[in-house]
Task: structure prediction
Amino acid sequence: MHSKKHIINIFVIFIYAIIGLSNAEEGEESEELQRKVEELSLVPDDKVFIHSVNDSRMVTCIGNDVKWRSANGSYVDTYNQMERIHVEDFSSPFSDNQQLRLIFKEIYEMDHGDWSCVGIYEEKSFTLFVYVPVEFVPVQQSITVNELQNVKLSCEALGRPAPEISWMFNGIRIADTDESTSESRHIQLSDGLYIKNVTRKDAGDYTCKAFQLSSKLSYFKDQTIQLDVKFKPEILNTQRTLSNGLYNSSSGITTKYTFLNASVILTCEVNGDPQPKILWYHRGKLVHKSNIEHKNNLSTLKIHIHSNKSFDDYKCVAKNDLGDAVSLFTVKPGIRPEPPTKLKLIGTGDQVIDLDIGAKQPNLTADIFAITKYRFEVMSKDDYDYEGDWKNYNITDVEARSNVTYLITQLAPNTTYLVRVASINLVGLSERTEMQEFTTLAEAPRKTQNEPDSAVQNFSGFGLVMLGVLLNLMY
Ligand SMILES: *[C@@H]1O[C@H](CO)[C@@H](O)[C@H](O)[C@H]1NC(C)=O
Ligand SMILES: *[C@@H]1O[C@H](CO)[C@@H](O)[C@H](O)[C@H]1NC(C)=O
Ligand SMILES: *[C@@H]1O[C@H](CO)[C@@H](O)[C@H](O)[C@H]1NC(C)=O
Ligand SMILES: *[C@@H]1O[C@H](CO)[C@@H](O)[C@H](O)[C@H]1NC(C)=O
Ligand SMILES: *[C@@H]1O[C@H](CO)[C@@H](O)[C@H](O)[C@H]1NC(C)=O
Ligand SMILES: *[C@@H]1O[C@H](CO)[C@@H](O)[C@H](O)[C@H]1NC(C)=O
Ligand SMILES: *[C@@H]1O[C@H](CO)[C@@H](O)[C@H](O)[C@H]1NC(C)=O
Ligand SMILES: *[C@@H]1O[C@H](CO)[C@@H](O)[C@H](O)[C@H]1NC(C)=O
Ligand SMILES: *[C@@H]1O[C@H](CO)[C@@H](O)[C@H](O)[C@H]1NC(C)=O
Ligand SMILES: *[C@@H]1O[C@H](CO)[C@@H](O)[C@H](O)[C@H]1NC(C)=O
Ligand SMILES: *[C@@H]1O[C@H](CO)[C@@H](O)[C@H](O)[C@H]1NC(C)=O
Ligand SMILES: *[C@@H]1O[C@H](CO)[C@@H](O)[C@H](O)[C@H]1NC(C)=O
Result:
C-alpha cells in the first residue's frame, strides 16, 4: 500500500508539472490546487503542548507521504504499539491523504522539543514542552563555619522552565547582587549563595526559593540551610563594671575598689560559640572553685579581703576551640563612703514624706570616692512589727544632688513608715543611718496642726507619676 501511494504521488506531481507548463498564465489557480494536494495539517494544531512527565499525547498528521521527526532529529519509524513513542497509520485506503498518529504513551523529560511532521514539500511542527517541577539537588541542611571565613550555601534547582532563584535570610529577602553593589558580602551564584567574611550575625536560616514562572504555569519550592557561625570568646562586661569599678580602655584593666574585711565581686560575661569555658587566675594560679559561680555566660569571682595581700591582680580567661579572651582586674583599697549626716523631716503629706539628707553633688574629678548615690530603704512599721526585721522592704537608689530634698512617694495615708538611708560610691555601700519613723497624714479631712510644707503639697501629685523616691528641689 505504501509503495502504491508513492507511485500515485509521483504521478500527480507529474500531471501538475504538465498543467503548470501549459497554464503558465493562470498561476494562481494552479498554486491553489497544488496546496490542496500538498497541504499538511496537524490535529490538534496547537503550536505548543505543555505536559508533565508521564502524561500521554496524540497528534495526527494528515498529508501525503509524511513522516514524524522527533525532537532530537531522528525519525519515528516504529509502528510497534508496545513502544512508548510510536506511529499508528490511520490512512484510509480510499484517500490520497495519509493519517499518521504520533502517540506518546508516556511523556519523558527527554521528549521536550520541537516535533515535526515532514512531507515532501513542507513540514509542520509543534513544541512539546515537558514541564519538570523544580527539584533541589540535596544539600546538607546545616553548615558550620568559623567567623571571618567564606562560605558557599549550595542551592541547585533543576526543572523546566528553568527556575529563578532568590534567597531569604531569616525570612527577609537578600537583595540581588549586581555590579553596583559589588561591596556586598552576598554573591548569588547559579548554584548557590556565597557569603564572604562571615560574621556571627550571619548565623541563621538561609532559604533558597526557586520559582518557575511562565504564562501557563507557576510553581515554587524552597529549601532551607541553617548556618552556624563559630566564633572565639569575647568579653562583654567591661563597661558594665563601671558601677563598682573603673575600666581603663587603653590598658584593658578594670579597677575595683573595696576595703579590708569586705568582699568584692569580679564579673566576667563572655560570648562565644562553642560556649567558652571560663577560668579565673590569681598570681598565675587557678582560683579555687568555691569562690566562683558560673551562670550561663556569666562567671563571678567573690574575693574576701582578709588582708592587704588580697589587694591584687586577677584574671578571667574565656576559652573555646577558636581562641580565648582575657579580662584583667585589679582590686585596690578604696574609701568606704560615710552614711548621710542627717535624716531630717521636711514635711509629710497623705502619700509622701519629704526628707533632707544633706546631699551633695559629687565632683569625681576631685574625688573618685565621692558619694554618687543614696539608697533609701522604706518599710511600713506594721510590716516591720510583723516581720520582726528588715524584710521585703522597698529599695530605691537616687542620684546625689546639691540643695535638694528627697520625696518618698506612693505611701499610704495615716501610716507609719521606717526609713533608713545609705550612701554609695565607687567602693560600694556605706553603713546605713539609724532607722527613723515617719507617719503620713490622714487622707481627709486634712489635719491643720500637721499642715505640711507647701513644697510637699505641690509635689504630692508626683506620686502618681513615679514610684519610690523623687528629688525635690529645696527653695
Ligand atoms: C512517572 O511514572 C513512573 C512509573 O510509573 C513513576 O515512578 C514516576 O514517579 C512518575 N513520575 C511522575 C512525575 O509522576
Ligand atoms: C531520539 O528520540 C527518540 C524518541 O524520543 C529516541 O527513541 C531515540 O533514542 C533518540 N535518539 C538519540 C540519538 O538520542
Ligand atoms: C571581615 O569582617 C571583619 C569584621 O566585620 C572586618 O574587620 C574585616 O576587615 C573583614 N575582612 C575582610 C577580608 O573583608
Ligand atoms: C590607663 O592605662 C594606661 C596604660 O596602662 C595608663 O597610662 C593610664 O594612666 C591609665 N589611666 C588611668 C585613668 O588609670
Ligand atoms: C577585720 O576583721 C577582723 C576579724 O574579723 C578584725 O579583727 C579587724 O579589726 C577587722 N578589720 C577592719 C579594718 O575592720
Ligand atoms: C551566651 O552566649 C551565646 C553565644 O555563645 C548567646 O547566644 C547567648 O545569648 C548568651 N547568653 C546570655 C544569657 O548572654
Ligand atoms: C594595709 O595597708 C594599709 C595602707 O597601705 C596599712 O595602713 C595597714 O596597716 C595594712 N594592714 C595590714 C593588716 O597589713
Ligand atoms: C571638680 O574638682 C576639680 C578639681 O578639684 C575642679 O577643678 C573643678 O572645678 C570641680 N568641678 C566642679 C563642678 O566643682
Ligand atoms: C514597694 O512600693 C510599691 C509602691 O509603693 C508597693 O506596691 C510595693 O508593695 C512595695 N514593696 C515592698 C516590698 O514593700
Ligand atoms: C546650694 O545652696 C547654697 C546656699 O543656698 C548655694 O550657695 C549653692 O550655690 C547651692 N548649690 C547648688 C549646686 O545649687
Ligand atoms: C489613723 O490611724 C489610727 C490608728 O492606726 C486611727 O486610730 C485613726 O483614727 C486614723 N485616723 C484617721 C483620720 O483615719
Ligand atoms: C505651691 O503651689 C501654690 C499654688 O499652686 C503656689 O502658690 C505656691 O507658690 C507653690 N509653692 C512652692 C514652694 O512652689
User: Anything to note?
Assistant: The chain has four domains: 2-132, 137-231, 236-333, 344-473.
